[in-house]
Amino acid sequence: MASRPPCRSPAAARPTALALALAAALAVPGLACAATATGGATGGAMATLDAEPVAQVSAVRAPQVMYLDVLLDGRVVATLVRFTVVAGELSVAPSVLTDAGLALPEGLPIDAAGEVALADIPGLGVDYQPTLQRVTLLPGIDLRPTRLLGYRIPAPVQVDRDHGLVLDWDAYGRRLDGQDTLSLGTGARWFGRWGTLEVNGVSRTGDTGTDGYARLDTRWTYSDPRRMWTWSAGDVVSGGLAWSRPVRLGGVQLRRDFGVRPDLIVHPLPQFSADATLPSSVELYVNNIRQYGADVAPGPFVLSDFPRVSGAGQAVVVVTDALGRTTQTSVPLYVDYQRLARGLTDFSFEAGVLRRGFGIDSADYGSDPVASGSWRRGMRDDLTLELHGEAGPGLQLAGAGVAWSPLARLGVATGSVSRSDGDSIGTQWSGGYQWFGQRAGFDLNVQRADAGYRDLGTLDGGSVPLRAQDRASAWMAVPRGSLSATWLRYRDGADLEGRTLSIGLSQTWGRSLSVFANAFHDDRAGTGVSLTLSLPLGDGLDASLTAEHRRSDTGLTANLRRRAPYQGGWGWQAQASDDGDGQLAAQYRGDAGEFWAGVDRVDDRHGLFAQGMGSIVLMDGQAFASRRISDAFAVVSTNGVADVPILYENRTAGRTNDRGYLLLSDLRGWERNRIAIDPDGLAADLRVPAIERLVTPPNASGIRVPFALERVQSTTVTLLDSDGTPVPPGTRVQRADGSEAIVGFEGKLWLENYQDGEMLSWTRLGQLCKAVAGDVDRSQSRDASPAAITCTPEKAT
Fold first, then answer.
1. Sign of dihedral through CA atoms 303, 307, 311, 312?
2. Is pLDDT larger for residue 785 or for residue 641?
3. 764 by DSSP, 3-state: which?
4. What domain range is 105 assigned to?
């Protein structure tokens, strides 16, 4: 019998081909196997099929392991990933797909090997190219995760804490009509790993009879930037809300402190969502100013970004896909600082005893314990809830308030109600509304309190809350400036009323002249108008002229001032008025402090005055005199190397002193500060392991920044062959320590960490040369070099 041709695998047969094969099998015995494979023939003849075709079919249907590259959106997202292929269908571990950026639905069937078939994932298209060993994923929108763009809550910074001591001083002296007065404000703060301990006060002496020292505050403080908590013990000021009154306490306090996270945005941010069907670019415009731009992969996205505006505005999100098609979405927004972002909480809790006579009596504390607490939380982006409570002898107070933005864009409405109980009973309520646009805005607020309403500020002889407060203010943009109006009215506990009305107009003419006109009426100060002209003259010089009319009295004051440069130098000020009063003063701003001195005339009396302020830093065993340090600072050490140029935020900040130290007094607390060494200003014999550091000190504290500079003896040696000619460039020279150096042009060889009398060896034209370098005399010059050395042949190789 003639042998039949081998059967082809049916796995790759198409429907048309299968039909043709079935018809041919009925007439051509050689094609019987194809008919059987398609189920088109049965009978005894089929039992005689060769074993070889059956084995081939089984091999095709058996699982096969393939390692393929995975492509998504035209780029490779994973290489050589393990896939299982069964009858042309691909399966893979679900983690491969999620790592590639897909959002898989719940409940997908997983096989015994822990894999999911790509065909079982709804909405997923697959382009399998076995010859290229790759598979391209074509997911639908439902499989695309929502991408978050723009602002992200940053991780807390790692704070660097060192210990040291800062002494602040502020001295003022004056002589007027033969009477002398002198005051000295002092402050001392020790900082370290466990926080900051500070004590400050003021001393007075002179002819006024008020000699003595008054302690102002003594307080320990520790801040945790991870939790945004600040603990305080000693003299504290209670936290409060817009509708409560803070008081001074001697006690303890725990409060939320957003100041330790200056990179955190605490008010609600507008969000914009859209879908991108192709790789696209996204841009955000607020009031026609571009504020954000980025690329985004296909799929839904949410854009949150800080709009650098305050009040009402218009945001436009522009999405441009890879084909150049553009879609725009316009959204109104409102940005204010009265609401908290959703999920954020602000609080302050304190307990202790009341303090009276601040600045007069250092030890005037109450004897009865009191407590206070305030709490705010962003319930939604448009709603913030506020709670407040107080307790003391014969007093219990509780209140609640809200800040709500209708539709999150129609301004902010506020309201509160609180009630006190105990020795007297009363209620206080308030309400307000604020709306600010780009061209106009207004702010309204009303507050009322019953005669029996009390709070902690009324205890121990304190003042009672105002019975009524009304405020209305508005502004609008006009050509070349703005127009504003403010109206205030109040009634105190004795039913005395006061009203103030003020209208102001500001104008700018050209690039220099500024004009501000103001008309006002006050029940106690009377009615008046004023006009001020300001003119900058360049180079730190500016002039102003003010005319004021009040109660039939007119005054004219002229002022000419040159500001002292921030980096240091002189400034001065001359002031004169039409009634003969005036002042002439000079200012000097230096590294060790700021100073003023001058003469003046007040009500036909002549006087002299002088003032100075600064700080003294004790840290790392060194003392530094500085300008007044109001935030953080750094003590830079260069390991005893003097005259090293130091950069702060890429600007030259100074050079180290003869002990290798420099004080940087203007660091930003709770933020990363970049401090570096300028390598271009270093001597050639200095080695610097690292020239830059990023440091994050707490506020009101300092940090030590060491740079391990090391002075090394380096020099250039001239090598000569035995015939006196320079050794050719590129020659490799073996040093005594086993290292290797390469000769440059004219036989010059640079040697770092050079040792006097060092043995050098090299091979030239098969000849081994050895030479001993001479000593370097650096007494005359730091760039001195040893004399040229000549090859001493040792042996042939």
1. negative
2. 641
3. strand
4. 64-145
Better-predicted residue by pLDDT, 1 or 580: 580
Let me know if residue 655 belongs to a domain: no
> What CATH number is attached to the domain comprising 740?
2.60.40.2070
What pLDDT is attached to residue 795? 61
> What is the dihedral sign for C-alpha 59, 63, 68, 71?
positive
Asked whether residue 721 falls in the same domain as residue 790, the answer is: yes
Task: Give the CA distances from residue 58 to residues 7, 33, 50, 85, in Å, rounded to whole numbers and listed in that order.
Answer: 13, 15, 14, 14
Distance CA 398, CA 371 (A): 12
The residue type at 506: S
Q: pLDDT grade, residue 13 (50/70/90)?
A: very low
Do residues 87 and 124 share a domain? yes
Mean pLDDT, rounded, for 99-118: 89
CA-nearest of 553, 551, 552, 543 to 576 is 543
Of the candidates 554, 550, 587, 581, the residue with the CA atom closest to the CA atom of residue 569: 587
Q: Report the CATH number at residue 86.
A: 3.10.20.410
**What whole-number percentage of the chain has pLDDT above 70?**
90
Its sign, for the CA torsion 450, 451, 457, 460, is negative
Q: What is the rounded distance in angstroms from the CA atom of residue 531 to the CA atom of residue 516?
A: 6
| 64 touches 87 (CB < 8 A) | no
Nearest to 138 by CA among 115, 151, 122, 153: 122
User: What single string gives the DSSP state of each residue in 550-615?
Assistant: ETTEEEEEEEEEEPPPTTSEEEEEEEEETTS-EEEEEEEEETTEEEEEEEEEETTEEEEEEEEEEE
One domain, residues 45 and 98: no
**pLDDT score recorded for residue 786:** 66
- In the prediction, which pLDDT does 30 show? 37
Give the total number of structural domains in the chain.
3
pTM of the model: 0.77
